[in-house]
Amino acid sequence: MLEISRWVVCALIGILTGLVACFIDIAVEQLAGVKYIVVKHSIDTFTEVGGLSISLILWAALNAAIVVVGAVMVAFFEPVAAGSGIPQIKCYLNGVKIPHVVRLKTLVIKVFGVISSVAGGLAVGKEGPMIHSGAVIAAGVSQGRSTSLKRDFKIFEYFRRDTEKRDFVSAGAAAGVSAAFGAPVGGVLFSLEEGASFWNQMLTWRIFFASMVSTFTLNFFLGIYHGKVGDLSNPGLINFGRFETEAMEYNIYEIPLFIFMGVMGGVLGAIFNTLNYWLTIFRIRYIHRPCLQVTEAVLVAAVTATVSFAMIYFSDDCQPLGENQAEYPLQLFCSDGEYNSMATAFFNTPEKSVRSLFHDPPGSYNPQTLGIFTLSYFLLAFWTYGLTVSAGVFIPSLLIGAAWGRLFGIFLASMTNGSVSGIVRMTLSLTVIMVEATGNVTYGLPIMLVLMTAKIVGDYFVEGLYDIHIKLQSVPFLHWEAPATSHALTAREVMSSPVTCFSRLEKVGNIVDVLSNAATNNNGFPVVSEFSASDEPGRLCGLILRSQLIVLLKHKVFVERAHSSLIQRKLQMKDFRDAYPRFPPIQSIHVSQDERECMMDLSEFMNPTPYTVPQETSLPRVFKLFRALGLRHLVVVDEENRVVGLVTRKDLARYHLGKHGLEEMQISQT
Q1: What does the record give under GO molecular function (predicted)?
Q2: Are strands 599-601 and 540-545 parallel, antiparallel or unpaired?
Q3: Helix (H), strand (E), coil (C) string for 266-301
Q4: Is residue 347 a contact partner of residue 312, using CB atoms and an 8 Å limit?
Q5: Residue 289 CB: number of other CB atoms within 10 A?
Q6: How many Cα atoms within 13 Å fall on the side-chain side of residue 337?
Q7: So what's the pLDDT on residue 566?
Q8: d(CA 177, CA 179)
């Protein structure tokens, strides 16, 4: 029955994620369509009578007006909804608690924020935020209740614990990828490569099932929206169109060209990440107030419109109208029957611009147009990523890659991916995503070569964009492997010491004092047999969590004195699940003076077999234990099994490989 419930939850995750993706797609298409029609009418009118500056002001004003809505929602109501959300979800799946990251309010603001960002003309995509949206949906559905709405549906109560919830969030992230790109297998691999810390065979099947359901749901409802009930040819939010396999052949002597493309993509990605790193530091220092963040977002929206207008205005690249893929072709100063090809790239949503670059016939763009567009859009994208708006970096990367790929005139489908891998550093999942999204297996090998080369080259210069932003937020993120030069460090050198321990039978007042002490921010406490005369901890008996102690105090699970018969209230697992995940703060629990003198028997509630290591255990071994077993605490003991220290995630994440060897970094305490 429990296994059936897991499959039901995954089905619900897929359906709801697909519906959210459908809503975002339709809303962006309608809102952006109205904007471009109004601006096109203005440009067409003032091209004939003069006064195009009015069209520029109108375009900039519309962009700013749409973007300001999303920016205000994010900056003032839920800052964690900013960006793509992928770094935050990576951290959550890695075992880090990020406040508000999977709240219902975050989902609502994320959805409306990404609609305003894309429709407002920013150099962003709506695909990245879908991953965050799917994760939030999964976190909510799997718990069978909404803590934000204070509604408990009394279902899926067994899943109200961290391990189960994270498994479902992995499925939600994969469903988001699947809805974004129409790539169910790519979604599974993304969740494995970028997200889930712990993996098993059944989890793989459930995640794949959620991804397939998500793609099918989006397919089905977009078919209805386009007036083709039953048509399942809209697999994702971005549709690259159909590629003719016969027209896309390559030979073995062209493989070095693909590798060269990967090198260029890696270099471009490294430049992008470095520029964005310094810009993010500037924002952290000087643009940290919500009003300033909204002002910057509005400024970027207006500048994007201004740059786009200027590029179109000064472009003399005119092409015959019949060959154009754009929905809103601008004639401007071109002859009758012709359109401005620069407008095809700028005067459109990024997804449709990518499709145009893929499928417009040879000669649709001249090299000057592509060169100017690539440079200007590259600068706009690097400035835009990190704004206090909901936005993704996938599609801008694809668009930049497609533009300079077309500029070199070499096989667009493979060239595109170099920039993406150079920026975000995903290889396995991105290869499959691109193969599934384009529907072309022929270019699987070139795409893989480009991505691997771009990642290797990019990693040589700087970390991936998501890892950079995780590090800037001082989040204790654990990578797959320990730093290469950390073998000389031992558990003794990285552990936290001295450790706050409790006796098996502990005074309630002491527990309250420890939990109330701001300096004691551990979430786990070793339980020992007895303390020595010098207050040294005794032999280890178990480990108890802060959340468990909070629930025990809330339900007054006390005995009057140490040796009285244990007549105390028996708790059930339901009592702990009902409190999850928002356990009450210790300040909200009232304990009278008489109750402080009572005792609490921790032996019934502690974990009697916590993982332990000797003091001399090497850091890589400690790291592997944490990563492979999904630990939160690792007790360090001496040869007599006495507690000498405690290793937590923050202790391990503090060490990273820098340019001058192993370096120690500051870790956020929140």
Answers
A1: chloride channel activity; chloride:proton antiporter activity
A2: unpaired
A3: HHHHHHHHHHHHHHHHHHHHHCCCHHHHHHHHHHHH
A4: yes
A5: 10
A6: 1
A7: 46
A8: 5
Supply the CATH classification number for the domain 253-290+311-472.
Answer: 1.10.3080.10
Residue with tokens 């990019």: 458
Residue type, 647: V
Q: Are 84 and 389 in contact (CB under 8 A)?
A: no
Rounded Cα–Cα distance for residues 552 and 558 (Å): 8
| 503 Cβ neighbours under 8 A, 6+ residues apart | 527, 528, 529, 530, 531, 538, 602
C-alpha to C-alpha distance for 667 and 47, rounded to whole angstroms: 57
DSSP track, 172-206: HHHHHHHHHHS-HHHHHHHIIIII-SS--HHHHHH
Question: Could you tell me which residues are beta bridge partners of residue 152?
Answer: 145
pLDDT value for 174: 93
Residue 114's pLDDT is what? Answer: 95
Beta carbons within 10 angstroms of residue 39's beta carbon: 23
Q: Which amino acid is at 553?
A: L
> What is the distance between the alpha carbons of residues 478 and 450, in angstroms, rounded to a whole number?
27
Question: What one-letter code names the amino acid at 93?
Answer: L
Q: Does domain 491-664 have CATH number 3.30.70.20?
A: no
Distance between first and last Cα of the chain: 38
What does each C-alpha distance from 24 to 11, 119, 137, 584 come to in angstroms?
20, 10, 15, 35
> Which H helix or E strand runs over 636?
strand 633-637
Rounded CA gap, 343 and 15, in Å? 37
Exposure string over 146-177, b if 16+ CB within 10 A, otherwise e = eeeeeeeeeebbebbeeebbbbbbbbbbbbbb
Mean pLDDT by 10 residues, the chain (670 residues): 89 96 94 92 84 92 96 95 90 84 93 95 90 94 81 80 87 92 86 68 90 92 83 66 62 80 89 94 93 96 95 86 67 80 85 81 80 92 94 88 74 53 68 76 82 89 88 81 79 88 89 84 85 70 90 82 52 69 77 85 89 92 84 90 89 63 53
Nearest to 649 by CA among 484, 475, 531, 485: 475
Give bridge partners of residue 401 from the DSSP assignment.
Answer: none
User: What pLDDT score does 664 carry?
Assistant: 57
Q: For the chain, give every domain's residue range.
A: 253-290+311-472, 491-664
The beta strands (E) that lie in 427-553 are given as 502-503, 505-507, 524-528, 540-545
